């Protein structure tokens, strides 16, 4: 299982590297499934997990 993010499908200013890395994980997972899945004699059937956004319990002053 690969953990991606909803950030892979959105644009977040100042988070370009983060969202690009998550988009990479999403697309790599989908391509591995296509290349190595049951239709091609392989056993990969999974998909990337894109957890929803969460609100941190830490106070905003500790976010930086």
From TrEMBL:
SUPFAM superfamilies found in the cross-reference section: NAD(P)-binding Rossmann-fold domains
Annotated PROSITE patterns: ADH_SHORT
Domain of life, per lineage: Bacteria
Residue ranges the record marks as coiled coil: none
Region (Disordered) residue spans: 35-64
The protein, known as: Short-chain dehydrogenase
Native organism: Amycolatopsis lurida NRRL 2430
